[in-house]
Design brief:
- This protein is mainly α.
- Helices cover 75% and strands 0% of the residues.
- Helix 2 crosses helix 4.
- The termini are far apart.
Length: 139
């Protein structure tokens, strides 16, 4: 018996007729190619992967916007101080360093605390036996 490879466009109209010819009592429904069935099977996994890729990016963008807002507010509150320093001869790089350290200090502290908490949580999760019934809990 010889066969040939059918495309999606070849299969759809021909399949119900073949089923009707071969078995008159069998209903012809759910006819799909392997590619179509595979696409439906992996659709949820693709959505999950897309969400896992985009949500952290959105969180990073929001964090950057928040950091920008903090630094901007700091500069707005210290505009007079910055003007006086510049009038007294402070260089642009000195004033820029002063502004950045004022805004990045809390950010670096938050980063260190967040990484420390994540490491502590990871250590606790790894030290629990696998049959422990408390998923995600920290003792």
């Amino acid at each position: 018996m010889r066969g040939r490879l059918l495309r999606d466009s070849d299969l759809s109209p021909a399949a119900p007729r073949v089923v009707v010819i071969n078995e008159e009592m069998a209903p012809a429904y759910g006819i799909a190619t392997v590619e179509q069935r595979y696409g439906r099977t992996v659709a949820l996994r693709r959505l999950q992967t897309l969400l896992l890729a985009t949500l952290p990016a959105v969180a990073l963008i929001l964090a950057l916007i928040g950091a920008y807002g903090v630094i901007r507010q700091s500069v707005a509150a210290r505009t007079q101080e910055i003007g006086i320093r510049m009038a007294l001869g402070a260089s642009t790089s000195t004033v820029l360093w002063m502004v950045l350290t004022g805004g990045l200090g809390p950010a670096i502290a938050g980063l260190v605390l967040g990484l420390g908490a994540a490491a502590r949580r990871d250590d606790h999760r790894m030290s629990r036996p696998p049959h422990d019934a408390r998923p995600g809990s920290i003792p």
